[in-house]
Amino acid sequence: MPAAFPRKTWRLRNLRGVSLGLLASLVLLTAAAWALTLYQTFSMARPMGIAVRGGLDGMEGMAGMAMAGIAADGWSLAGAATFLTVWTVMMAAMMLPAAAPMIFMFAAAQTRREQQVAVPTWIFVAGYLLVWAAGGLVVYVLVQLGSDFATSLDPPQRSNWAPLALGATLGVAGLYQFTTFKHVCLSHCRSPLAFVAQHWRDGRVGALKMGLRHGLYCFGCCWALFAVLVAAGVMSVAWMLLLTLVVFVEKLMQAGQRFEGALGIVLVALGIVVSFGAIEMPG
Fold it and tell me: Which positions make up the signal peptide (predicted)?
């Protein structure tokens, strides 16, 4: 027994050191991601959400991507790569705060198994962000298709379609809050200990698989909310801050379950109001 005490003490000290180092790293990474995202938002003059080809004019309420030339200039590999880079940085800024408990739980499990901690933990984070990067590819395609559709309409038609599109997206996001799939994905995100116990895999490949799996659950939980972000303006600061808070409360706060249903009702009601053009949503 006496020989085991120093070993146990080392584990506690090691876990404490890992937690402090990981916390500092996550804070720095999140802050850097927000700084880059805000820089892209405010430094580029040309709105680049769903846009009309060959012009600067976009669909009202649906343009917010502050990056030069992606949607209006059409499909391109360079445009897709730039879009995915900015999208992934934005997802890191918005999602890492809510994912932090799961990341810490993974690191703690690594420590208890006396395995290397830092590298597998960041591989786990990379796998998580990789899922959101893949989602960005879908978003890029949708933005381009939306731009094609916007270009085919005359100005009065664009003004009519924009509130309908945003209102429908809000309504879908609200209804999704009540689906079984949403509840299942959200339950995994709310239970880091259960997730690690159920899906644990050893090694670096195992860490990547776990990060991908958690990313898929998180994407399944939040995709409809981020569809609102895409419809309202991909780089809308107002929507980014609001959705970051919404995701954080829904996943981590004790009132998250009640908030989940209330949010669904609010989104559906807001979708109806926006569809009829009664109010304009901030872009």
Answer: none
Find where tokens 């360079």 sit.
78
Q: How far apart are CA 96 and CA 102, in angstroms?
A: 10
What's the structural domain count of the chain? Answer: 1
Amino acid (one-letter) located at 71: A
Contact 80, 67 (CB under 8 A): no
Helices and strands in the chain, H and E counts: 9, 0
DSSP of 1-30: -TTHHHHHHHHHHHHHHHHHHHHHHHHHHH
Contact 185, 100 (CB under 8 A): no
Identity of the residue numbered 154 = D
The verdict on pTM exceeding 0.85 is no
Tokens of residue 235, six digits: 């780089």
Q: Helices 118-151 and 203-232 sit at what angle, rounded to 10 degrees?
A: 30
Domain that holds residue 79: 24-39+74-275
Could you give the CA distance from residue 63 to residue 280 in angstroms, rounded to a whole number?
13
pLDDT tens digit sequence for 38-64 = 888 777 544 445 655 555 444 444 333
- Say if 153 falls within a structural domain: yes
